[in-house]
Amino acid sequence: MSIPLGDDPDGEGPIDAVLVRHEPAQLSTADAVLYVHGFTDYFFQRELAEFFAAHHHRFYAIDLRKCGRALHAGQTPHYTRDLDDYRLELTRALDVIAAESHTRVLVVAHSTGGLITPLWIDHLRRTDPARHALIGGLVLNSPWFDLQGPAVLRTPVVSGVIDLMARVDGKRVIPQGLDQSYGASLHTSTGGEWDYDLDKKPLGGFPVTFGFLSAVRRGHARLHKGLDIGVPSLVLRSQRSSAAAPETVDETDVVLDVRQIARWSGCLGGRGNVVPVPGARHDVFLSRSPARERAYTELAQWLQLYAEPGTAPDA
């Protein structure tokens, strides 16, 4: 279903988000999942939806504004100047799920979605206790918790340059493009296991703009100061990162630095578990078997405790 969002604050016309559902037969439950994708991504992972259905959760996934099914002609893919703008569609999606008799929602997010969602949940805890009470937990799959690459990229000087460029011309593309090896390792057309729409998720990714990166860096800064999401969390990541290469792309995270994920996971607040998955890709649920099976096993074990409120595992 389309969720109208009005006019784009970034000036690209009317925008919407798209909420999709998994409809398994004879599944009656108060528990639901809201899945949030990352950058150059949209929801297509039917296997993940089927996993949650088997564990008695109704599954919903949102394609955020200007992403996936919600990307329309004339719009800049995945472009925003402020991650807080996503609060609108996430909150409306939560309301739709609650209206369909689900009283506890597990938020599951990947990569950039793994930064957007804790910021949103922390905001709900501080400003909207009734809606926050609907959220029972948070599962993050390789969340983007810091800017990867050489340390100089994370200095105040570079951050200042990014912010300046974002103010001058937010839609200007950052010169360095994305490597295609990760996308090529996934898609069936290049020998991978997964069939998805390359217009919505191109092998080499969409261009990264200064405006978007500035928004992400401000989100990183807020996370690093410490959040309090107020719900139990599980963070899944690969055991190690490496540079993108044919011999590493299937068994390591070639997109993010897993040391940064480990370092900043404690900033979520509340009870949390961080689990490294040996041999996992950036998206642990798109990894090859047995890494993917290990990730599902870890998630299933966590869900057993999550299913009983108040018994989530300690950090």
Q: What is the average per-residue confidence, as pLDDT, rounded to a whole number?
A: 92
The coarse overall form would be: globular
Order of helices and strands: EEEHEHEHHEHHHEHEH
Question: Do you know the CATH topology?
Answer: Rossmann fold
How many structural domains are formed by the residues? 1
Q: Structural class from helices and strands?
A: alpha/beta
* CATH architecture tag: 3-Layer(aba) Sandwich
Give the biggest beta sheet.
8 strands, mixed
Report how far the terminal alpha carbons are from each other. Answer: 37 Å
Helix percent band: 25-40%
The number of helices is: 9
Enumerate the spans where pLDDT stays under 50 for 5 or more consecutive residues: 310-315
- CATH evolutionary superfamily: Alpha/Beta hydrolase fold, catalytic domain
The Cα radius of gyration reads 18 Å
* Strand ordering within the main sheet: 1-2-4-3-5-6-7-8
Work out the strand percent.
Answer: 15-25%
Class, according to the CATH hierarchy? Alpha Beta
InterPro entries: AB_hydrolase_1 (IPR000073), AB_hydrolase_fold (IPR029058)
Pfam family, one: Abhydrolase_6
Protein name: AB hydrolase-1 domain-containing protein
Domain AB hydrolase-1: 33-288
How would you sum up this structure in a few lines?
The protein is an alpha/beta fold and 315 residues long. The protein is built from 9 helices and 8 strands. It has one domain: Alpha/Beta hydrolase fold, catalytic domain (Rossmann fold).
